[in-house]
Write a structure and sequence with these properties.
heterotrimer, A mainly alpha, B alpha/beta, C mainly alpha, B: Rossmann fold, six-stranded mixed sheet, 19 helices
């Protein structure tokens, strides 16, 4: 047990397995069954959050954070759906435009944080407000139409596995690889660990933070595309309704990544997202009130971080 | 040595030449007309009081600051660095007092930070590990490997990592800023060996230190800075310590320490420890009397800081007896009339963004002490000049900051005051003022326990010296004992070894 | 206090601009209406200030405000006799939530961002679990008077401001700032760091309770009453020049930040900028304000303290 807790990534997977087992038992006791289909459903549901959280991991590892992802998701869903306008031939253009806008938002976040030296909390909150203003100004409700071909992204399966889950896995593996094997990844850890040390070692710290934010926003953009394909249209509230801003931060921290940056990784985040999703599924099976789910989620997040804090604290003393 | 000298004669080319360097911050001139040169294989010491401009000069060399005037030539080429990395690429490596390492990353990751080798676009971890191992071998360092996490290494080991980092960039100039400040005495020897190796490779070492003994041990030439100006550059063998100090401060070393306590001035027992121990200490017996200054000597890791923290209640004793009662917390210690002037002023002593006034009153406010002397009286007592109460302490010099720390404790008139390296990083002028204050406090009846790794200070100030070794009291020495006597007691091999 | 000067200049400028656009603003009734509108946010900003200056965050205040209003509506349910008992209960709830936030943050060493994020989820989940998804019941007239009558709101605001200033001058306030600036030094000076931090969270919880009482009267009962108030409060505090991370800034400036934010909304409305774009303008201004404040700092940091 101590060995498990000693490594947050392992701890979150242990918790995940335990939750699955207990959930399975509870559901069975309740007279239901927990099938492979449910597991697949978990994947499907967690894909959007998972993709955002993987991006958020980059921002947090670099010592920053991004509160603008929720509104960005809504914006991207609308841009994509309106550009597609129901035509398959527009898909490519729409994806390019949507991701271009995402990258731009990430660029703004990064530049405001590094060049204007605004605390990430305030900078991304400000950008979130700007996007919100634009959304509220231009849209009253769902808009645009996503062609059936693009809806495959949200609903199709390859064998038993949803395309959305594959997309999530691809994003997660890509970012994992980026962090482990590229110079950029090494520098993200360095900047998040100690920005001054990184700078004195010749790391162009501003660029790293900006790049991390661009990638984070791109992930949010991908999630926005995925949600648009599910809805068949763009919606101005799809991002905030999902609570993707705070929820993605919660998932990252649940996965053992330090909020202060420089410690943690994608593997933990994936575990964190899955843990939240499994909880969700079990509660759905048990038909638990959705407000009760919020309560449990809040408790789980705080307890998990308290457990991690205990072990790092012991090491320090 | 013969070999090194020969090598130097062959390759005595000038690697570094800084000429007429000047720099101002916010209109305040901190450097003017500084010349400094270094040749291959030379150890060139740069000395001067705090505020003399050593660090600024080195930061200009490192590309952290840009000079307002003057030129920097490296290998005969005039260079100007807009960013530290440019200096690094030009062959300048700096090892700062506070290491520039990432605790959560491996040794190899740290060594190659910012210039990770790649193969087909990906970081080549095998190559990093291998290169790091090779350099560690060359330095005879086998106690840790390239994959060890920096947070698991000792201070001396981390310094080796910094040196490996310098070697891995093929540095031609290595700057060491107070490299022995955090090292234990036996580790200093190892550092000397490392520096000799750097010399042997034809690297120019710029060695910044307060400790003149090291300067004479190591340096070929010494450059003295004072108030941002160049005083002299002389071969180390042509000067004496006294002459150097005179150049640095413009006065002789005499009258450095206030007079010792008279026999009759030493009064009642203020503090006793019998068999005190905790995780780091064992069987501590100690007695402190009103009016005396007791010095604590010992190697790094001998438990000196642990001892004062235990008496103070920050890392309490878990065994043994103490009068006043063993404090279980800082607050209990303060309530029992014990104060601690910590070793690291900035990290543990002061709230840097707060005013002089707020810092001076911090202890009194924390324990709700009511009968406060006015702050202006306090500041006069510690000779803070100018005694501006609203200045944020981060703008004060090291010496003035230390006076604020002292003022903080004087508000509650402690019966026992513990000093951990009271004059570290304090310039010579303020040092004397702090020494006078300590003696004044003792004369007024405070019992003082003082840790110092500077033996002249320890011997000059103490009425009695307690020597620690491996968390135990190794022995006591009377006032005026020789440095050799103290060292012999502190370093003697224990029975276990 | 020097850091605080810009916010007062900006605030004065905004107030002048409002007065020019709408002379009614200068009349007692007009200004009173403005103060009434500002009061809840100003009170929340004061509470948030204590937490931020100690080096922490409180993201739970928005949900807490909602909880307070929803609980009040359900328990009072139009019954005047219930007004005072419920008011007392609301204050107790605020204090308790703050206490738990503080204890979890200090004793379990959970970063306050996460603690209060968790509290946010738990609070809003719990209150709607209790009411079955939507607010029920109604507030009494006696309850609504605090938020609706400008005089009451202003009186409460004045009391809060005075109390906050006195607290910050007292030993508590000075040790709180010291703890936010350098926790270790404060601890080694005998400051009960955990205790002052917990107390800061308790004050923040209390401020949310008071703000909730005012907002219930002012805006009525809804599930959205406290929505994103935590961000507004933090924004106000930061606008006032208080540094995230602790140790720097003045409580009056934080409250002035809330006034500035509200004055900004008022001005935007007067100039017919739609409610929607209001957010965009707000976002730009927040970033700009902090950027201007932040850009000054590096030049100070260059002072050769380490030379």
């Amino acid at each position: 047990m101590i060995a498990l807790v000693a490594n947050p990534t392992r701890a979150v997977y242990a918790a995940l397995i335990a939750t699955l087992a207990i959930g399975w038992a509870l559901v069975a006791f309740d007279g239901g069954t927990f099938t492979l289909n449910d597991l697949v459903g978990i994947q499907q549901r967690s894909a959007a959050l998972g993709i955002v959280a993987v991006g958020q991991t980059l921002a947090i590892l670099a010592g920053s954070l991004d509160l603008s992802v929720a509104y960005l998701i809504s914006l991207v869903s609308l841009i994509a759906a309106e550009t597609m306008a129901g035509q398959t031939s527009n898909i490519l253009t729409a994806v390019v435009v949507a991701l271009g806008v995402s990258a731009l938002v990430g660029l703004v976040n990064g530049v405001v944080i590094t060049k204007l030296k605004v605390h990430a909390f305030i900078a991304t909150l400000g950008v979130a407000l700007v996007i919100r203003g634009v959304l509220d100004h231009l849209y009253d409700g769902p808009a645009g139409r996503v062609p059936v071909d693009f809806q495959q992204l949200g609903y199709a399966r390859i064998g038993p596995i949803p395309v959305a889950a594959i997309l999530w896995a691809a994003v997660a593996v890509g970012v994992w690889f980026l962090l482990r094997r590229t110079r950029f990844g090494h520098r993200v850890y360095a900047v998040g660990g100690d920005v001054e040390v990184a700078r004195l070692s010749g790391v162009r710290t501003d660029r790293v933070v900006i790049a991390a934010h661009v990638l984070c926003s791109l992930c949010a953009g991908v999630a926005g595309l995925l949600l648009a394909s599910r809805l068949g249209a763009g919606a101005p509230t799809v991002g905030t309704d999902g609570g993707y801003d705070l929820e993605s931060i919660a998932a990252v921290v649940l996965g053992g990544t330090a909020l202060a940056g420089g410690r943690g990784g994608v593997a933990g985040t994936v575990g964190g997202v899955l843990l939240l999703a499994v909880l969700d599924s079990v509660f759905n099976q048990l038909e638990v009130n959705s407000f009760f789910k919020d309560v449990v989620r809040g408790v789980v997040i705080v307890v998990a971080v308290a457990v991690y804090a205990r072990r790092t604290g012991r090491r320090a003393s | 040595m013969e070999d090194i000298n020969q090598k130097r004669a062959e390759s005595a080319q000038v690697i570094l030449r800084m000429t007429g360097i000047g720099k101002s911050f916010l209109g305040i001139r901190v450097l003017r007309g500084i010349d400094l040169s270094a040749t291959a294989g030379e150890v060139h010491a740069v000395v001067g009081e705090n505020g003399a401009g050593k660090s600024t000069l080195m930061k200009i060399l490192a590309g952290v600051h840009q000079p307002d005037e003057g030129t920097v030539e490296i290998g005969g080429e005039t260079r100007s660095f807009a960013h530290p990395v440019e200096a690094q690429r030009a062959g300048v490596a700096i090892i700062y007092q506070e290491f520039n390492l990432l605790p959560e990353r491996s040794v190899a990751d740290n060594v190659f930070l910012g210039r990770e080798p790649t193969r087909r676009g990906l970081v080549d971890r095998a190559a990093m590990d291998e290169a790091t191992s090779r350099l560690l071998d060359e330095l005879d360092e086998h106690s840790f490997g390239p994959r060890a996490l920096v947070k698991d290494l000792s201070v001396a080991q981390q310094q080796v990592v910094e040196i490996v980092k310098a070697l891995s960039v093929d540095a031609r100039i290595v700057v060491m800023d107070e490299p022995t400040a955090a090292l234990a005495e036996h580790e200093v020897e190892l550092l000397y060996r490392l520096i000799r190796r750097l010399q042997g490779r034809g690297i120019a070492v710029l060695y910044i230190s307060h400790r003149l003994r090291e300067v004479f041990d190591l340096a070929d030439r010494v450059t003295v800075l004072k108030d941002g100006a160049h005083v002299a550059t002389v071969p180390a063998k042509d000067v004496t310590t006294g002459e150097l100090v005179k150049m640095m401060v413009g006065r002789e070393l005499d009258a450095y320490f206030p007079a010792k306590a008279e026999e009759s001035a030493i009064g009642e027992v203020r503090l006793t420890v019998r068999g005190g121990g905790n995780g780091k200490l064992d069987g501590i017996d100690l007695e402190l009397r009103a009016g005396e200054i007791v010095g604590v000597a010992g190697l790094q890791g001998s438990g000196r800081s642990s001892l004062v923290k235990a008496i103070f209640g920050a890392e309490p004793f878990t065994r043994g007896e103490m009068t006043p009662a063993r404090p279980a917390s800082v607050r209990a210690g303060v309530a029992a009339g014990i104060g601690l002037v910590t070793e690291d002023r900035k990290a543990e002593g002061l709230a840097l963004n707060q005013s002089v006034r707020d810092n001076a009153l911090l202890v009194a406010r924390a324990i709700g002490h009511r009968s406060r002397t006015t702050v202006s009286d306090l500041l006069r007592r510690v000779q803070l000049a100018p005694p501006r109460q609203e200045t944020e302490v981060k703008y004060l010099s090291g010496g003035n900051q230390q006076k604020v720390v002292l003022a903080k404790w004087l508000t509650v008139s402690p019966k026992v005051l513990l000093f951990d390296e009271p004059t570290r990083g304090v310039d010579v002028g303020a040092k004397a003022a702090i020494h006078d204050l300590m003696r004044e406090l003792a004369n007024a009846g405070t019992a003082i326990l003082m840790i110092s790794s500077e033996l002249p200070e320890l011997i000059g100030m103490s009425d009695r010296i307690v020597v620690l070794r491996d968390g135990r009291v190794a022995g006591q020495l009377p006032a005026g004992s020789s440095e050799e006597a103290v060292m012999a007691l502190a370093a003697a091999d224990g029975v276990a070894a | 206090m020097k850091r605080a000067i810009p916010i007062f200049v900006v605030l004065a400028g905004l107030l002048v601009a409002i007065a020019v656009a709408n002379p009614f603003f200068l009349e007692p009734a007009g200004f009173l209406a403005f103060l009434k509108r500002v009061a809840p946010l100003a009170i929340l900003a004061a509470g948030q200030y204590f937490v931020i200056v100690s080096g922490e965050f409180d993201l739970s205040v928005g949900s807490l405000v909602t909880v307070e209003v929803v609980v009040a509506a359900r328990l009072i349910d139009g019954d005047e006799a219930m007004t005072w008992p419920v008011l007392i209960l609301l204050v107790v709830i605020g204090l308790l939530v703050g206490l738990v936030n503080g204890l979890v943050t200090t004793k379990l060493r959970v970063p306050s961002f996460i603690t209060t994020l968790g509290a946010m989820l738990i609070l809003s989940g719990a209150v709607f679990l209790w009411t079955g998804g939507a607010p029920r019941g109604a507030l009494s007239q006696g309850f609504r008077v605090f938020g609706r009558e400008g005089v009451w709101a202003v009186a409460i605001l004045v009391v809060v401001v005075i109390a906050a200033v006195l607290l910050m001058r007292a030993d508590f306030g000075r040790t709180l700032v010291a703890a936010g600036d350098n926790e270790k030094a404060a601890r080694l000076s005998g400051v009960r760091v955990d205790r002052v931090r917990v107390f800061a969270f308790v004050l923040s919880g209390l401020s949310a309770a008071v703000a909730g009482i005012l907002l219930g009267g002012f805006a009525g009962v809804s599930a959205q009453v406290g929505q994103s108030l935590e961000f507004q409060a933090i924004t106000a505090v930061v606008l006032g020049g208080v540094v995230l991370g602790g140790g720097r800034g003045h409580v009056v400036a934080a409250i002035a930040g809330a006034f500035t934010l509200e004055a900004l909304f008022t001005l935007l409305n007067l100039h017919g900028i739609s409610g929607a774009l209001e957010y965009a303008v707000q976002g730009v201004i927040i970033i700009a304000a902090v950027a201007v404040g932040g850009l000054r700092l590096p030049s100070l940091r260059l002072s050769p303290s380490k030379v």
